[in-house]
Specification:
This protein is mainly α. The protein has 3 helices and no strands. The relative contact order is 0.07.
C-alpha cells in the first residue's frame, strides 16, 4: 500500500467536498485507510505535558481566570 500525505483547506467548499469523498471511500471499502496524526504544535504540547511542564488547576474557574475569560 502506498502512503500519501495531503493537506486540504477544509474551510473551502471544494476542500469540504474532497474530505467528504475521501471519508466515504474509506468507510465503504478497504480501498483507503485514514490515519489522523497531530500537527507539530500539538506534538510539542504533548511532549511538554509528558515532561511535567504543564500547569495544573484545582477547578475550571481557576483555569478560566488564568485564561482571562
Amino acid at each position: 500500500m502506498t502512503t500519501l500525505t495531503i493537506k486540504v483547506n477544509n474551510r473551502t467548499k471544494k476542500g469540504k467536498q474532497l474530505l467528504y469523498l475521501i471519508g466515504k471511500l474509506a468507510s465503504d471499502s478497504n480501498l483507503l485507510t485514514i490515519e489522523k496524526t497531530p500537527n507539530a504544535e500539538t506534538l510539542e504540547a504533548m511532549k511538554e505535558a509528558e515532561q511535567g511542564n504543564g500547569k495544573e488547576y484545582a477547578s475550571i474557574d481557576e483555569l478560566f481566570r488564568d485564561l482571562g475569560i
